[in-house]
Amino acid sequence: MNTKNFFSTLILMAMMFCLNDANAQQRQNDYAAQWEKIDAFVSKGLTKSALAEVNKIYASAKKANNDAQIIKSLLYQMTLTQNIEEDAAEKNIQKFESEITTAKEPAKSILESTTAQLYWNYFQQNRYKLYNRTNTVNFDKKDIATWTATDLNKKTGELYLASLSQKKLLQQTKLEPFDAIILKGNVRYLRPTLYDLLAHRALEYFETDEPDLIKPAYAFEINDADAFAPVEKFMQHHFATKDSASLHHKALLIFRELLTFHLYDARPDALIDVDLERINFVHQYGVMSNKDSLYIHAMNDVAKKFTDNPASAQAAFFAAQQVYNNATQNAYNKTNGDAYTIKVSKELLDKIVQRFPESEGGINAKNLLLQILHPSINLTAEKVNVPGLPFRTLVNYKNIAAVHSGLSNFLPN
């Protein structure tokens, strides 16, 4: 068994949540010795031995109502059975669905989010089969193997939305007491609650675009300039649609909930992070003819509003990067873009580096400046040249003071 793939799958599936209060967590068994034994089995490729130990923890955790260990056991069971059982994906989905019916909050929300990802993974792994199936009406589809692409996407979306339905409870569920079984990064402050974690997991799905799904004639499009509006205006704006199945419309609604939740945070980092993700999402999928200008303006608005916060440097970088991208595109197409020049982009990047050199935006600005200032030369010769006669060569160069030709020294007398 590939150990690296095993642990990567666990990381992708969930963040190993703990679902009990801090005191309860101290009282409950964390099964540390058993998990070390299981990991040792996994590293040696002893899948069945590892699974037997996981099943013991699962049974014990069930008796003790230890939600954290139940979920951790389920994740291990799911990953291990994929290597030894046929139809493991379908069986794992059924098992998680069964767990949802008996789970209490906030465990239920976590299981719903994880099951949604299982459905989405199943869809991606079986994509080639699904698009040959025809949607049926009034057909009892108990067997997931008979589902269509539409069925799977509908179920996935429903579960992700269900995982966010207990909004107030999830927003009050802090993560700090549960460090022992959470895979931590270095930006915990950007995901301070269980709601943040689950909402961003849902966004990973709703931000996607599945071009092959059948869409109605009135399919939702992001064509409203207010999708780029400042937070306060965006939160109040109503994005009308008849397309109840639209993933992108649901993404906008989740962004609105997250921004509302963090609007009055004492520390605005989480708010800035969500807002930048929202603006980048709208820019990627918006259909407005002037979306580049709207994007740059929106990013600059964020940078100016939080001018003293290092996180604002990332917004300023995104704006400068778009100016640079447009400038290079204009140069390639030989069009005139007065506002989009490489010189303007460099000036913006210099300011970012000067103000917040060690921030994420500052480091990104440094890297783009290195790309802009990197010397380069490119020679293009004609495909056919006459022997004994001079031949022409087009010389394109950047960040080089001068180019001198010495080719005449090599021409024949």
Key terms for this structure?
18 helices; two-stranded antiparallel ribbon; 413 residues; 57% helix; single chain; mainly alpha; 3% strand
Rg calc:
27 Å
Unreliable residue runs: 6-27
Strand content: under 5%
- Provide mean pLDDT, rounded: 85
Helix percentage: 55-70%
The number of helical runs is 18
The major β-sheet equals: 2 strands, antiparallel
Coarse shape: globular
The string of secondary-structure elements, in order, is HHHHHHHHHHHHHHHHHHEE
Per DSSP E runs of 2 or more residues, the count of β-strands stands at 2
First-residue to last-residue Cα separation: 70 Å
Oligomeric status? single chain
- Structural category: mainly alpha
Strand order of the largest sheet: 1-2
Write the layout of secondary structure elements.
Layout: H1 3-13, H2 22-27, H3 32-43, H4 47-64, H5 67-81, H6 88-102, H7 107-125, H8 127-130, H9 149-162, H10 167-171, H11 194-206, H12 231-236, H13 247-262, H14 269-285, H15 291-305, H16 312-333, H17 342-355, H18 360-373, E1 376-381, E2 393-398
Helix pairs in contact: 1-5, 3-4, 4-5, 5-6, 6-7, 7-9, 7-11, 11-13, 13-14, 14-15, 15-16, 16-17, 16-18, 17-18
